[in-house]
């Protein structure tokens, strides 16, 4: 098994773990966005327990943990679908898709958070890192697609069925 194939296998699971892990931010009332009204949260059709937990010291906040959790969950499903369509992808491209997907979501969701570290006065550290990772993963994908020959197939050998399975 190659490293790229191993990363392709692990990438969807990492997104699922990140989706679940964001709920720790919810429980700890951390990593939230800026202030919003209760009406805003109710218009999102959120359960009452989420709305109540987003009330911190009398102020309601954006549930950015929820946005990132749902973003990661959708990415998990998409990566599983992509991985199972092996005639389209080459080895390593599911892992690159993970980096692209997560970085894109993180870039925008990080823009809503209030507890970020800043690079100067214009960009958050996490947004800068997300931007770098997004561009790098896209660049590696394009390089591998257009400048490597022959393409690395997703599976070197197709699985062989035993006589009993046929």
TrEMBL record:
The keyword Transmembrane helix applies. InterPro entries: Lgt. Coiled coil: none annotated. Keywords: Cell membrane, Membrane, Transferase, Transmembrane, Transmembrane helix. The chain crosses the membrane at residues 64-82, 122-143. Belongs to the Lgt family. NCBIfam families: lgt. This is Prolipoprotein diacylglyceryl transferase. It comes from Alkalibacterium putridalgicola.
